[in-house]
Amino acid sequence: MIRRFLTVLALPVTLFLFWYVASRTSESFYAPPLRTILVAFGDTWTWPRLRADVLPSLGRLAAGYLLAALLGVGLGIAVGASRRLRAAAEPVLEFFRAVPPPVLVPVIMVFAGIGNAMKVIVIVSGCVWPILLNTVEGVRAVDAALSDTSRAYGITGFARLRYLLLPGAAPQIITGLRQALSLAIILMVISEMVAASNGLGFTIVQFQRSFAIPQMWSGIIVLGLLGFVLSELFRLGERFALGWYHGRREAQRRS
Amino acid sequence: MLEVSGLRKVYRSQRREVEAIRDLTFTVDDGELVCVVGPSGCGKTTLLRCVAGLLGPTGGAVRLAGNAVTGPPPGMAVVFQEYGRSLFPWLSVHDNVDLPLRQKRVPRPRRAALVSEALTAVGLDGTQQSNPWQLSGGMQQRVAIARAVAYEPSVLLMDEPFAAVDAQTRAELEDLVRALWQRLGVTILFVTHDIDEAVYLGQRVLVLSASPTVVQDELLVDLPAARDQLHTRADARFTALRARVYEQIQAAKGAQPNTAISS
Fold first, then answer.
1. pLDDT tens per residue, range A221-236
2. What does the domain layout of chain A look like in residue ranges?
3. How many helices (H) and strands (E) does chain B have?
4. What is the ipTM of this complex?
5. Position B40 in a domain
6. What CATH number is associated with residue B220?
7. Are A135 and A93 in contact (CB under 8 A)?
8. Percent of chain A having pLDDT more than 70?
9. Which residues of B touch A (CB under 8 A)?
10. Domain that holds residue B66
11. Which of A183, A185, A189, A195 lies closest to A109, judged by CA?
C-alpha cells in the first residue's frame, strides 16, 4: 500500500522538484521561479477567492456535466435500443461529435448571452456526444444471450432498463463519462475565458492581462489540481459501479 | 400440453433465404421429458427459440395448453447453453435467481423460500452472495437451472445446457435434471446434440433431420425410470436405443437436401 503510494507520487514529485530547481534563477518575466509562483499561490487562493471564483466554476461544471450525463445516457439508451432510431440518428450524431466543441462558444453566446446559462449550455453541448455515442455502443453490445434470457423470464419494460440495459452498457457509459469529464473542464475554462465576470478561466485571463504572471501560473496549477482531484473521484466511483466488470475480467484472465 | 404443429422457419436476408425448419409437428404431454437430437446445424436452437416465443415462426404454430405462443409465455423457463452469458454478471447468485420471481410479483417471503430451496436443490448452498463469474462453469449452469426451477414453470426448455461443461460435471448435471424432473413433475423439452445424453435423459427422443428440418424419427425410451450413469449406460437396451438414434442421424445426414433456396 505504502509502496504503491510512493510509486504514484514519485514522478509528480520529481517533476515538481525539477521545475523548482531549474527555475530557481530564472529572470524571465513570463516564467518566474516556482518559488515565486508558490508564494503567489498562497496569497492568491484564499478562502474568499475560492468562494468567489472556484465555486462558481465548479457549479457550472457540475450542472453542465450532470445534465450532459442525463441527456447522453437517456438518449443513448433510446437510440441504442431501437434499430430504426439508430439508423436515422447515427450519421447526425457523428457529425455533431466531429464539431470541435470550443467553436460552439461564440454561437451559443449569441442566443444564450454571457451568463451562467451560456456556460452550462456550452459544457452540455460538448460533453453530451461522447456520452451519447458510447451509451449507444454499450446498449448495442449488450449480450444477445442475456437479452433472450431477460425476455424469456419476463424482464421487460423498466426492469429491462434497470437490470439489463443500464448495467450491461455501464462499462461503455463510464468510458464516455470519463472522456466527457476532461472535456467539461476544458469547456468550463474556455467559456469563462471568453465571457464571464468570475470563475477560474476568467481569473486566469485577468491575471494575464494585468501582467500578474506568478498569479496566472498559480491559477493554472489550481486547474491542474482540480482536474486531478476530479479524475480520482471518478475512479473511485467507477470502481464502485463496475466492481463486477473488473472482477469478471480478473477471473477470466486467471482461468 | 405443448403442441408444435407444422412449424416452419425461414431466415431471410437481403441476398437469400435459408429454410432452417421445414415442417415440424410433435407434442409433449404434461410432465413428460422429451429430448430432441439432430445433426449439428439442423435448427435445434431455432426450434427451441420458436417454442420459447423468442422467435416468430414463418409458418405453423406452437401452442402451450391450447394457447398460441406469440411471445415468451408465462410459466415457461429456459436454460441456455451459454451459462456464462445467460446469468447477470452484475447481480449476485441470489439476485439472479430472485429477479424473475420479482418480475412475476411473487410475494417476498415466498421468493426467499423459493430461491433458497432452488439453490439447495442444485447443491449451491452458501454461494448466494457470490457473483456468477466467481463460480466454475458447472456451478454457473447450476445457477441457471436453479433460476429455472425457482420460477416454478410448467414447461422447462433446455438448449444444449451441458454442451460447454466437462464430462464429469455433465454426468452430474444430467442426474440433477432427472431428479428435479421426477420431483417437480415439470414438462421438459431438452435439446442436445449428444445421442447418449438424449437416450439417457428422455422418455422419448425426437430425431430431427438435417436442415431444412423435419422429424426424422421418434422413439420411446423404454428404460426403467430409475437410471444411473453406470448401469443404465451399460444396459443392453440403452445400447440398442443409442444405436438406433445414431443410425437415424447418419441417415439424416446422408439424405441431406439442398439447404439454401436462392430467391
1. 999 999 999 999 999 9
2. 53-242
3. 9, 11
4. 0.86
5. yes
6. 3.40.50.300
7. no
8. 100
9. 49, 52-54, 71-72, 74, 76-78, 80, 82, 85-91, 99-100, 102-104, 131, 133-134, 147, 151
10. 2-75+153-262
11. A195
Mean pLDDT calculated for residue range B144-163? 92
Give A141 to chain B, closest Cα distance, Å: 12
- Hey, what's the cell of A93? 450524431
Fold of the domain built from segment(s) A53-242:
MetI-like fold (1.10.3720)
pLDDT surpasses 80 at A159? yes
Residue B179 and residue B121: Cα distance in Å, rounded?
Answer: 9
Sort out which chain A residues have CB atoms less than 8 A from B78's CB and list them: 148-149, 152-153
Does residue B134 surpass a pLDDT of 50? yes
Does the distance separating the beta carbons of A245 and B88 come in below 8 Å?
no
* pLDDT at site B262: 42
Question: What pLDDT was estimated at residue A149?
Answer: 93
pLDDT tier at B255, thresholds 50, 70, 90: low
* Position B107 confidence tier, pLDDT thresholds 50, 70, 90: very high
Q: Does residue B111 sit within a domain?
A: no
Sign of CA dihedral A159, A164, A165, A169: positive
Provide the number of structural domains found in chain B: 1
Identify whether B208 is part of a domain: yes
Any B CB within 8 A of A170 CB: yes
Residue B139 lies in a domain: no
Distance (Å, rounded) from C-alpha B114 to C-alpha B146? 9
- Record: contact B88-A148, CB cut-off 8 A: no
**pLDDT 10s digits, B220-239:** 888 888 888 888 888 888 99
- Please state at what angle helix A55-81 crosses helix A166-194, rounded to 10 degrees: 140
**CA gap B110, B250 in Å, rounded:** 49
In angstroms, how far is CA A114 from the centroid of its own chain? 22
C-alpha cell at A76: 443513448
- Round to whole Å and give the CA distance between A28 and A26: 6
pTM: 0.85
